[in-house]
Inverse folding.
């Protein structure tokens, strides 16, 4: 029994592996649609860039999720993602199935130009061609260049499928970066390259030209100039201190003690001789003496 789903609806899955097919009606002026898958953890982000399976990385390193080649069928064109749910690592909480536009075939196109876009989910292990569920993906604004069509997610011990239909006007780059993919900006805007791995091998890439070598030059040491003493400002006293040491005050005698000798005599003392005594007169003779003084 096939479940025709509305946006936001979900359905339990008994299948251990699924095949998600994007189908649309081709025609003049209608761009091709590229299917992609993101292996997302419980935090809503990929574990690393290898968890992004798209046209530049068509196989997950585990081999459990892969992208098939575009195929023409009577109902239109298809692009397919296959996922082995039973062997996915427990850290993978859901597998997001997305669609983007091949703008090389129609520049400036949006999903408003795509006719009859539908996602069909099949049991990849069953021989029946009847889908388990299908959901018609319709743009809401007409500016979408990438769309999350649906997701397969864990529920208890099993898996469920949800119809999402969320569009992005920023293309596959905007969608992928929302889930933590590191996009190499050197690539084409609609061809993001996961940095962990990519389709091109280093051996196939042309060698990068060697950078031009500049002629070696000998470094000239700067001319040493004699050291010049740095002018020092005159010493300043500490704040509030005197600028010069004054001479010590002369000691003063204790009150009542005699004053030290000075050029002036103390009050009431005899005056010194005004002049020195005269020299003796050489013609001075003693007067005649009495007999008692004459020698015999």
């Amino acid at each position: 029994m096939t479940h025709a789903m509305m946006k936001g609806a979900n359905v339990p899955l008994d299948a251990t592996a699924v095949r998600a097919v994007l189908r649309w009606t081709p025609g003049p002026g209608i761009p091709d649609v590229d299917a992609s898958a993101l292996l997302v953890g419980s935090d809503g982000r990929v574990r690393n860039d290898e968890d992004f399976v798209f046209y530049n990385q068509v196989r997950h390193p585990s081999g459990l999720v892969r992208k098939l080649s575009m195929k023409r069928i009577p109902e239109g064109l298809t692009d397919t993602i296959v996922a082995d749910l039973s062997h996915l690592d427990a850290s993978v909480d859901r597998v997001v199935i997305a669609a983007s536009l091949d703008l090389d075939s129609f520049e400036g196109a949006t999903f408003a130009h795509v006719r009859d876009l539908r996602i069909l989910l099949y049991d990849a292990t069953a021989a029946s061609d009847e889908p388990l569920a299908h959901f018609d993906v319709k743009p809401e604004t007409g500016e979408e260049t990438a769309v999350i069509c649906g997701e397969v997610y864990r529920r208890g011990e099993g898996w469920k499928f949800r119809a999402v239909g969320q569009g992005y006007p920023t293309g596959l780059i905007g969608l992928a970066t929302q889930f933590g993919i590191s996009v190499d900006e050197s690539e084409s805007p609609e061809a993001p390259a996961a940095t962990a791995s990519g389709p091109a091998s280093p051996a196939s890439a042309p060698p990068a030209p060697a950078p031009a070598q500049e002629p070696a030059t000998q470094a000239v040491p700067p001319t040493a100039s004699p050291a010049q003493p740095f002018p020092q400002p005159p010493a300043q006293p500490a704040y509030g201190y005197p600028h010069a040491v004054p001479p010590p005050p002369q000691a003063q005698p204790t009150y009542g003690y005699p004053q030290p000798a000075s050029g002036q005599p103390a009050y009431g003392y005899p005056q010194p001789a005004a002049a020195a005594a005269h020299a003796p007169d050489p013609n001075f003779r003693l007067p005649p003496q009495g007999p008692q003084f004459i020698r015999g």
Q: What stands out?
A: The longest helix spans residues 171-178. The longest strand covers residues 158-168.
